[in-house]
Every structure is written in C-alpha cells, then in structure tokens.
Amino acid sequence: MGIESILIWALLGAVAGWLAGQLYKGSGFGLFGNIVVGILGSFLGGWLGQKLGFAGATTGGFSLSSILTAVVGAVVLLFIIGLFKKR
Q1: Per-residue pLDDT at 1
Q2: Within 13 Å of residue 61, how many CA atoms lie on the same side as its CB?
Q3: Domain residue ranges in the chain
Q4: Residue 56: what pLDDT?
Q5: What are the DSSP calls for the chain, one per residue?
Q6: Distance CA 52, CA 54 (A)
Q7: pLDDT value at position 4?
Q8: pTM of the predicted model, to two decimals?
C-alpha cells in the first residue's frame, strides 16, 4: 500500500466518518471524533472487504463502492466503540 493509497483512504475515511455519524446517531463523538473514527473505519472496512472478497474494497481511487466500504467500516467501528462506551 503506497502513500497515495493511504491518503485516499484517509480522505475517504473523513467523508465516511461524517456520513457514519449521520447514520449512526447517538455515538456522541462529535464531528471531529466521527471523522477520526471514519478514517480508522475506512481502513477496517477496506481490510475486511478485501479479506471477504468484495470487489469495491480495493484502494486506489474514488468510487461509490469504495465510499460504501469506508462507511460500512466506520459504522461498524462506531457500533463497537459504542458498546465499550456504555460500560
């Protein structure tokens, strides 16, 4: 994974974090927190997508499938963090 791919996933993650924060209400992380979670979630979504064989999970460009992969990863991560936050 080159530096360009990492930057693209970071940008996708920022967008995905914002979208995931809109979809997954009640997370309480705020805009900046959701963007950070989105960046981490985009890496998680991309990694999981590649392991599960989803074609849109590849890095290297902006596409609807890569944005959806990042959003799904961010929502999953927000859900997991929400479970630990409640304890």
Answers
A1: 63
A2: 5
A3: 3-85
A4: 57
A5: --HHHHHHHHHHHHHHHHHHHHHSTT---HHHHHHHHHHHHHHHHHHHHHHHT-GGG--SS--HHHHHHHHHHHHHHHHHHHHHHT-
A6: 6
A7: 80
A8: 0.73
Q: Between the CA of residue 45 and those of 6, 67, 70, what are the distances in Å?
A: 13, 10, 5
Backbone φ and ψ of 53, nearest 5°: 85, 25
Q: What angle do CA 87, 78, 22 make, to 5 degrees?
A: 125
pLDDT digits (tens, 9 = 90+) for 24-78: 776 557 777 877 887 888 778 878 877 887 755 555 567 777 778 778 888 888 8
At 68, the amino acid letter reads: L
Place of tokens 């920022």: 14
Which is more confidently placed, 9 or 50? 50
Q: Which two tokens stand for residue 44?
A: 């998680």
Tokens of 79: 């859900």
Q: How big is the CA angle at 80 (ends 52 and 68), to the nearest 5 degrees?
A: 45
